[in-house]
Amino acid sequence: MTTFSHEVRSELARIIAGDSCCQLAELTALLRANGEVLISSDGVSAGFTTENASVARKVFTLVKATTGLVAAVMVSRSRKLRRKNRYQVRVPLAGREGGLFDRLGISPVGRSENGEPIRRHCCKKAYLRGAFLGGGTVGRPESNYHLEISVRDENFAGSVVRVMKSMGITARYIMKGEEVYVVYLKAFEKIDKFLCLCGASDAVLRLQSCKVSREMRGAVNRLVNCESYNAERTLTAGYRQLQKIEAIIAAGCWQKLPAELQDTASLRLSHPEASLTELLTRAGGRVSKSLLNYRLRKIEQFADRL
Ligand SMILES: [Zn+2]
Question: Same domain for 120 and 242?
Fold first, then answer.
């Protein structure tokens, strides 16, 4: 079963920004969210691992577009039970022809805050998209509103929160275990806005239609609850009146009731479960609703005085 997270990632992975400023911003966020430094016999490289083939493809494309470097892609089977494919994209960080560091002029991985601030509106969107593709998950909108981005670098978590804030989304981050920082959004409006900025229009549609059906379900539930509450109330009132009438009879005071109250009491005795409206119909429209209600109250007061 594909999760909502998977759908959102696949949708976002298909978007390739046209401007190189945005491509760079997105690649920076991707690598800072989920990149690691790999040291092997080939030298030092930046590694990006994902289970989503289209995200791996995107990293490859962005590396090529921004630096001209051709990244290596390795596929392996996860040792976990689900046995999904894992894709690792490797980009040399430094080398004879110049690696990522040299080409970008920044350090997209590691804990330093060397990356230049993201200022342009277009780049901010791409940056947030990259952050989500690097470490984001989002709950099924049918069950809850929760979006989070897990990253390994606290500076980057802070930077994502700042960029979100500058776009009108208030987010927080918490430390979750060693070297895991989680930026999270918990309200519909924030998640809606975030996905919208990232360009996930299919996801936004699903989110919004879920909200409508959730609200509808809520309204229906409230209505049902309200109706059963009213039914319960009628039942309680009817039985309370029945008990009082029986008490009047048991006390031998029936004859002391004025004739019109006897009429009403007989009516209630024959229909203990009827609501006031139903009782009114049984009375054959001889009295008004308020008069009937008044008489029932009088009967109860009569019983209370016994
Ligand atoms: Zn841009």
Answer: no
